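Hi support team,

I submitted a single chain yesterday and got back a structure, but I'm not sure I'm reading the token output correctly. Could someone confirm the output below corresponds to the sequence I sent? I've pasted both exactly as they appear in my results page.

Thanks,
R.
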Amino acid sequence: MTSIEDIKLNCKPHYEPQKISSLSLAIGVDDEDIQDAWNEFYKTKKNRQDTYAECALDEEELDCDSSELFYDLFLKNDAPYSIGNFMETSIGDSNIKTSLWQKITQLGSKEETTRTMEYSHPINAPLAPPSARSRKEQTLIKFSTYGIILETETYVDDVPMVDCFYVKDRIVVAFDQNKKTKVSAYFDIRFVKNTLLRAFIYHTTKSEFIKSFNLFLKHLQTRIASSLEKSTTITTKSPSAGKKEDERIVKVLPSPISSTKIIETREKSK
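Hi R., thanks for writing in. Yes, this is the structure output for that exact sequence:
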């Protein structure tokens, strides 16, 4: 199976980001190479059982006609309907702090960035506190206008036995020439220590993540529909009499409404 690491940069396997020369960065990557890399990934993603044991969403269609609109609505730093906004309004998470996206690499119109989300997650389990400190480490890869990959590792603290596992998930958003957008979501519950509660943890966490991804799909569908409804038709009359009115459709994004805190971390200058 072709891994995402194998196609991250210039379609060359095992080509680590830190080994990229300044020359290759200056030259960049042809858009056709980026499309080929995306097509190769999307073709092999159906074999995701090698990496992710569970599938929560399988090519669910969205009424979104561009990668730019999707990114602006849900993923950019000041996105009005961000993942933090979803976690707060649909999951019940609180005290959400989201760092700004930090660029790792950019070759042409292909970009890879990372960020961290820290928050309190509600817990519904015997002998557990009502909430627990949690963290998401996220990596976002944009393949020009062809597709987006969001990979997340989720860790939970303050709850007995949770240090024995973490959850890794991947959201894949594909855009095609027919202006069809499809979203898929996979996840894997990864144990790092032995525990007698393995079966209980696995089934409880699996159920929670499947429910969460289905709520996220509803979040995407509802917010996209809402943004389209906010589109404004501007009608301007031609200066010459007898000419038909010229109608222009202007897409207007809603103003940012997220109550999460966005924190930019910078290294202190020495």
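A quick pointer for reading it: Residues 226 and 254 are 9 Å apart (CA to CA). Let us know if anything else looks off.

Best,
Support desk
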